[in-house]
Design brief:
Chain lengths: ~110, ~110
């Protein structure tokens, strides 16, 4: 049962433009959501998170939006840079229990 | 520097061999996890531990076993490797309250069984 879904396996954007990565979830019990970034041959690294009591969290160029009614969250990167090219994983957790991950979206930012 | 280490980074091994993937962390984290990931697929939790002498199986059925004799060490063992075990294995750890940063991951072991 895939509780966290990232339906776009890849995304390509031009440098300087906005990147929008999307994530859907099915379990309404999730109370925290996270985004991880993964470069090839490395483990995922934490990028940004949001509690279910909020609808937006911003950290520099990265903003995460949460729409609980739609069970949808998105990660916005503005402006996109070539160094942002990586695989981005959406993750969700409830009651501080084990985390569930999506399949990831490969972002390519072209110079 | 606090971190989490996995060895080996890459392993190619023949069918039927016994292998152990090592994972160690220096952060004093109570919780440790093993995830398995195939290309383009989500990370699947295969084992987790909430402390010494505590191990549980995750969502994805796995023929591997784990042990947690020391807080910092969480090795994963395959008694008899098969080609279906070919995958990337990621180890992670977290403090008891992992939020808001979630888990710290190692660099992974890419296993190929021929």
């Amino acid at each position: 049962d895939q509780q966290v879904k990232q339906n776009s396996p890849s995304l390509s954007v031009q440098e300087g433009r906005i990147s929008i990565l999307n994530c859907d979830y099915t379990n309404s019990m999730f109370d925290y959501f996270l985004w991880y970034k993964k470069y090839p041959a490395e483990g995922p690294t934490f990028l940004i998170s949001i509690s279910s009591i909020k609808d937006k969290n911003e950290d520099g160029r990265f903003t995460v939006f949460l729409n609980k009614s739609a069970k949808h969250l998105s990660l916005h990167i503005v402006p996109s840079q070539p160094g942002d090219s990586a695989v981005y994983f959406c993750a969700a957790i409830y009651n501080n229990n084990d985390m569930r991950f999506g399949a990831g979206t490969r972002l390519t930012v072209k110079p | 520097e606090a971190d989490i280490y996995q060895t080996p980074r890459y392993l190619v091994i023949g069918t039927g061999k016994k292998i152990t993937l090592e994972c160690s962390q220096t952060m004093g984290h109570d919780k440790m996890y093993w995830y398995q990931q195939d290309p383009g697929m989500e990370l699947h939790l295969i084992h987790y531990s909430y402390g010494v002498n505590s191990t549980e199986k995750g969502d994805l059925s796995s023929e591997s076993t784990v042990s947690r004799i020391r807080t910092e060490h969480f090795p994963l063992t395959l008694e008899s490797a098969r080609p279906s075990h070919t995958s990337q294995y990621l180890c992670a750890s977290s403090a008891w309250t992992s939020l808001p940063y979630g888990y710290t991951f190692g660099s992974g072991t890419r296993l190929t069984v021929v």
